[in-house]
Specification:
Elements lengths: L1 E6 L1 H20 L2 H21 L1 E6 L3 E6 L6 E4 L3 E7 L8 E5 L2 E5 L5 E6 L4 E5 L3 H23 L1
Parallel strand pairs: 7-9
Antiparallel strand pairs: 1-2, 2-3, 3-4, 5-8, 6-7, 8-9
């Protein structure tokens, strides 16, 4: 039904700053002092690689999302979705995986997200640059699951 991968270019750019400092430090600082920026640079590059790409998909059963390399995959069954809407989390919520007052936020770029509230009251926000398409796919999937559920009850 729906699948989209978003790349967080700004997130990559900010993450490359510590890596660039580490490279510069390796050439100009004494070896024992350059170890600290080297470690920071390697960690920054690893975080960029892991958290700068977010893939979200909606199929006939669930909303699924994961970061690069399929890590941190999460799923919400469409039957568990109470509602979904477009929201603007506070700017300071940042990018990556964050706990906010509204629930978990998964975002690699931008300032808006699709908030999915489940029947048990939990909210998950998924950042995307295709807000309308993702929201429509979720709502369409929820309606299809509800319609199928009513058919099987009869």
């Amino acid at each position: 039904m729906y699948r989209h991968t978003q790349i967080g270019y700004a997130m990559m750019a900010f993450g490359l700053i510590p890596a660039a400092i580490a490279i510069r430090a390796l050439w100009s600082w004494p070896a024992r002092v350059a170890l600290i920026p080297l470690i920071v640079g390697v960690v920054a590059l690893a975080l960029i690689g892991l958290f700068s790409v977010l893939t979200v998909s909606v199929d006939e059963a669930a909303v699924r999302w994961n970061f690069a390399l399929g890590l941190f995959e999460r799923t919400i069954a469409l039957g568990a979705v109470a509602d979904a809407r477009i929201v603007t989390p506070p700017w300071y919520a940042g990018w990556g995986i964050r706990w906010t007052l509204d629930g978990w936020l998964y975002r690699v770029s931008g300032l808006r997200a699709v908030a999915i509230r489940t029947h048990d009251g939990r909210t998950t926000c998924l950042g995307t640059d295709e807000l309308d398409r993702l929201l429509a796919a979720i709502l369409e999937g929820v309606e299809a699951v509800r319609a199928q559920s009513q058919v099987t009850r009869r």
